[in-house]
């Protein structure tokens, strides 16, 4: 059938991954950066015990040394352990809110783009309106109201409240263009109903955009969560990257020249964001062949 | 400008304002406890403020929300108060009115955010345009990697790094605050000088961290514009490269950027709030931070609402100006 034959090039990229990576250096570098961060969280616990993130486990305010590789903070926690055990928590928040944002955005985008009419007005209008709102402040209202004892998962849910707008917009505009293509028309004439067309014809062709939207939503989720945490509105007892920054500001680590307290979380955050950015730029190249020749 | 477009934009603005007010009304009622009341009781228990004045706060609070009345009446009353920017009194700084506290802080934020966003927008767009321009000076390409890396850092984390380098280590700039300790705000030349000196680092962190974003968007637009027939024609006519760049390519590529600016305002505001916190800059960000730490809910809700309204107004103005700037924009639905 013509429809499936046309659908293949988009999905095929994911099957021919190794060769594709060489063709898309940005994607490759981005993946390597994120894998490095993930690997650190997997291998690190083999060498560093979890107890070391506990308050009072080590001598406070120690510079990086052979014994304390990244030094210790004012309440006697070891920075290396904080980074190793805190990074996956932040990544987890990003992944959960990214998944929720993508799912909601995908449903909204598909409905809005494919069916149009009233739903399109409503959903696109809502996405556009919420995009212009300073999201952090809305999240602050939610987080302060439910303050106290927020867990990492709750934090992820709070953040995901505003993670669906970009996916909705991107997916909607792609669906608008795919909807008019000949293979979708053909499917419609051959008697498929709307749901079947969406699942069998549209979604396979959306895959690169879905992946890019997911990466974007993860990145937005992490940004929002460390922002909330820097205001003190996060899981108080968990060493997430944002909470680490909050405590380092709370104990004025800069004025006390404890650079090993605030610098490591910033470095990890920068690596994560750079990695996500490169992946999404790389996915853009995959999705828009016309961008490929321009570096 | 067709009435339909105008009505749509203004309608969207009121929708956002209404949604913001409604969220402020609904969220506390969704949680099992009334956080405002809880916090007031706690303040009384701790004895932070005198019990008598606290009684007054609670009374004014209950009267204000008419907690004995049906929900729809409470809601109508709340919306009416919000529409008049009447946010009640601060819980921790009774009897200061929340609106007074916010309007004290707002000018600081407005100046900082407006100036730094404009600088970032202009420099970033120019930089992005040059990146895509074949005859641009070589050093542009050297600057690209660091600037793009900066744009991957949240504003306030870049701010932390800048404080460490330029204020703590090299002492070029003050460590934080909006003016020297011991002086009080006024319009004297001395004070304005202090304010400028204190705002350079916060502004720099916003500019450096957001330039890359504008540069990327502009670069993509320039690449498209360069392929247009009118640029080829201008080259064929033998016009000077500089003239083609400024009058033909840049002018056409900058317009979609302004649309992006309208969309990015909320994001910039979120970032600026945190920058203020890091620098202890006396704007709404620091006010928000201190009210979060003391759980001063009336301030948090009022401030959130007002900033959303402010961003809404700015977006509305941009939306109404854009069609004037760019005749290619149609007023109808895309």
List the helices and strands and how they pair.
The complex is a heterodimer of chains A (295) and B (334).
Chain A: H1 2-15, H2 17-23, H3 25-47, H4 79-115, H5 117-132, H6 135-145, H7 152-160, H8 165-179, H9 182-189, H10 194-230, H11 241-250, H12 259-287
Helix pairs in contact in A: 1-9, 1-10, 3-4, 3-12, 4-5, 4-7, 4-8, 4-10, 5-8, 7-10, 8-10, 9-10, 10-11, 10-12, 11-12
Chain B: H1 3-30, H2 35-46, H3 51-65, H4 71-83, H5 98-131, H6 139-150, H7 155-169, H8 189-226, H9 229-236, H10 241-279, H11 284-293, H12 297-325
Helix pairs in contact in B: 1-4, 1-12, 2-3, 5-8, 5-10, 5-12, 6-8, 7-8, 7-10, 8-10, 9-10, 10-11, 10-12, 11-12
Low-confidence stretches of chain B: none
The biggest beta sheet of chain A, please? none
Percentage of β-strand residues of chain B = under 5%
Q: Any idea what the shape of chain B is?
A: globular
CA-based shape of chain A: elongated
Percent helix of chain B, as a range, is over 70%
**Helix run count of chain A:** 12
Q: Evaluate the radius of gyration of chain A.
A: 22 Å
Tally of strands of chain B: 0
- Continuous helix count of chain B: 12
Structural class of chain B: mainly alpha
Number of strands of chain A: 0
Q: Give the ordered list of helices and strands of chain A.
A: HHHHHHHHHHHH
Distance between the termini of chain B: 16 Å
